[in-house]
Amino acid sequence: MLKVQEIRELIKLVDESSISDFSYEANGTKVSMKKENGEVVQVAAPQVAPAVDTKPEPQAETKTAEPKQEEAQPKEEPKEEAPASTVDFDHEIVSPMVGTFYESPSPEDDPYVQVGDNVDASTVVCIVEAMKLFNEIEAETKGEIVEILVDNGELVEYGQPLFRVKKK
């Protein structure tokens, strides 16, 4: 069976080439792709087969002027890392789980904290919702909030920095 990375490479090669149809079959695994108007519109799932490490060797094709890669678009980490050099902080409050970040207990209420607010170790700074459970996140340090790194309603990962704090 093909690995996800190999399928991604195939999609990229087909997307960048001038071919409109592509099919690949080996050891019971079948992948079919078809382009309409220069965009890959169909990818067939692999059929059930024993796992075999086969790496396809597609022929190199001429590239078009506008290759599309939709998978690489939803990344915002570079935006978050840029302010790191301009903000003075001693501690980052990180998400203890994967979930949705909420800055207030309800949409009508004010945010728990804002930039410039002083917090204690037990101060609730936000809520992270995971599987319909709302978990209050505490500052766990004493200091001043100098930066909020995520937007209300944004999905957060385990260990992702949420706030930057200047300890007092």
Question: Which sequence of SSEs, written as H and E, runs from N to C?
Answer: HEEEHEEEEEEEE
Largest sheet: 4 strands, antiparallel
H/I helix tally:
2
**Overall number of strands:** 11
Any idea what the shape is? elongated
Low-confidence sequence ranges: 40-56, 60-72, 74-85
Report the portion of residues in β strands. Answer: 25-35%
Q: Taking all residues together, what is the mean pLDDT?
A: 76
| Helical content class | 10-25%
User: How far apart, in Å, are the first and last alpha carbons?
Assistant: 56 Å
What is the radius of gyration computed over CA atoms, rounded to a whole number of angstroms?
23 Å
Strand arrangement, largest sheet? 4-11-9-6
Describe the structure using short key phrases.
168 residues; mainly beta; four-stranded antiparallel β-sheet; 11 strands
Brief synopsis:
This protein is mostly beta strands.
Protein described:
This protein has 168 residues and is mainly beta. It contains two helices and eleven strands. The strands form three sheets. A four-stranded antiparallel β-sheet has the order 4-11-9-6, with no helix packed on it. A hairpin with a 2-residue loop joins strand 2 and strand 3. The chain starts with a helix and ends with a strand. About 25% of the residues have low confidence.
